[in-house]
Amino acid sequence: MIPHFTAAEKAVHYPEDRRAYLGMKPYMKMILLVLFIGIIGAAWLQYLFFGLPIDPSVAFLPVQPNEPEGFPVWIRLSHWVNFFFLMLIIRSGLSILYDHPRLYWNNSCKPNSSWIRFTPVKIPLDRPYTAKEDARYINPIAGLPGYKHTVGIARVWHFLTVPFFVLNGAIFIFLLFFTNQWKRLVPVSWQIIHDAWNVFVHYATFNFPVNVDGFYHYNAIQQLAYFGVIFILAPLAMLTGIAMSPAIENRFRWYPKLFGNRQSARSIHFLVMISYCVFIIIHVSLVGATGLVKNMNHIVMGSDSPGSYTGLYIGIVIILVTVGFAFLAHWLSWNKQRSLQKLQASTNGKIWKYTINRFKAKTDYEKKDITSYFWLNGKMPDSSDWKNLAENNFADYKLKIGGLVENPVELSLDDLKEMGKEQNITMHHCIQGWSGIAEWGGLPLSKIIELVKPDSSVTTVAFYSFGEGMYGGVYYDTHTIGNCMKPDSILAWEMNYEPLSLEHGAPLRLRVENQLGYKMVKWIERIEFVKSPKDLGKGFGGKNEDDEYFDLMADS
Ligand SMILES: Nc1nc2c(c(=O)[nH]1)N[C@H]1C(S)=C(S)[C@@H](COP(=O)(O)O)O[C@H]1N2
Ligand SMILES: [Mo]
């Protein structure tokens, strides 16, 4: 069950500073404190000065005509299916979060501009510090799969489960309105706010209300909480999730703005998760406190017969199955990575191929949007070839372009510059979670394709780096020829109107703006046109796809 790490891997997976840590900006702490004290305090003030709002007709929502009784089988099923997938989604989400354990409200992700961080590490400003170094350990009990640098597998779980979660939700909503079950969930009058507050005053002052049986009717705060989880949290989770995609961000620039910006969408995505957790804790506590056996009978068996333990027992089995699956998922994550990666490609990868992967980037960021900070990633090349070239400012650099082409060429930087130049201001999205906006200047890949005339059998273009991957071996990645032909797909020698720095990928780096950062090879040594990514490396389309199980191209 526990994966075996080599010493080199251990240094990555069990770093010294892996202890749990939560750092929040003082203003965020203040906001939380004021909210907490304010709300509980107001309830107490009302209680102390005006007494409890005891009148049940005020404290509890009146029963509506035709209100449904009990839980039909589809509600019970979707409740537990939801539970099962939510556990997987939350735990894999935590694992993804820890790959860049900082959250921001701004797109530049500047050091120390995070409002919360889950790492004790202060970002060193006196040396190049990469996002990979910054990734943190998360305990596999909390995260799926947990440990460090497992964002690839964590994404597999996240994206593999999301469609089922969404489908389950869609079926539930459909049946809710198809039957009269919506009446117990959807408030039909603003009176609900007033009523919910009154119920809250009871709870907050430990005067637990005598509940109308949830089998027949929810109290106002219960109704509001369930309504919020189903009709606010779930859609918000999906919408903010989509807002993090580079293909969406660099195509529909207005969309992430609905949530402020790309990083606030990520922060809201996190806060939705926290809200889910708070809800689950309170929900489960109250289920226990208000009659566990009875309540489990309701939601498992759909029966209100007193004294029956069947619901409780079956409920426990469902929970054990969910926990058991967590162990299985952990085992799969460390022993069947490749199968998981392929499974993801054959489901969501296919969906992406025909949807977001088709979007073309649109360059309408402006100069003023360029972020003052841009994280670094990757290992600087160690090769003497590259170092020698760098010493001479790449005057002797020749980009080699070959493979299945009619006209293989070797081009110096000056040759490339003569062939044309495009300048784009775009947002970079690292798979780990950070972003940055920069100007990139360079030659459109379409010009290179025009020049070398690839064979008609070519589907894929491979870009090889002077640098190595995390565990050694040449860093490379591939793109479909279709994506290379898109606007904003360039070989860049300029960043923010300056020559590309050594750290950011000199002499040349790739920009393909509907893709994630790991696909944008830095320190490019050569380009190869091939029939299929299967013939390169381990055959999965890139160094990170090979070694870290990052997202596959659906057709690779
Ligand atoms: N050669 C090479 N290129 C690479 C990487 C790498 O490790 N090696 N990392 C990739 C990743 S994960 C990201 S997010 C971007 C980071 O680019 P930056 O350092 O200019 O921000 O480079 C990509 N290109
Ligand atoms: Mo990245």
Features of this protein?
Sulfite Oxidase, Chain A, domain 2; binds molybdenum atom; 5-stranded antiparallel sheet; 12% strand; binds ligand MTE; membrane; alpha+beta; 13 strands; Fumarate Reductase Cytochrome B subunit; 2 domains; elongated; 556 residues
Kindly describe this structure.
45% of the residues lie in helices and 12% in strands. It is of the alpha+beta class and 556 residues long. The protein has two domains: 294 residues, Fumarate Reductase Cytochrome B subunit (Up-down Bundle), CATH 1.20.950; 189 residues, Oxidoreductase, molybdopterin-binding domain (Sulfite Oxidase, Chain A, domain 2). The strands form three sheets. A five-stranded mixed beta sheet has the order 5-4-13-8-9. Strands 6, 7, 10, 11 and 12 form a five-stranded antiparallel beta sheet that branches. Helix 8 packs antiparallel against helix 11. The chain is elongated and about 85 Å long. Bound molecules: the ligand Nc1nc2c(c(=O)[nH]1)N[C@H]1C(S)=C(S)[C@@H](COP(=O)(O)O)O[C@H]1N2 and molybdenum atom. The ligand Nc1nc2c(c(=O)[nH]1)N[C@H]1C(S)=C(S)[C@@H](COP(=O)(O)O)O[C@H]1N2 binds next to strand 8.
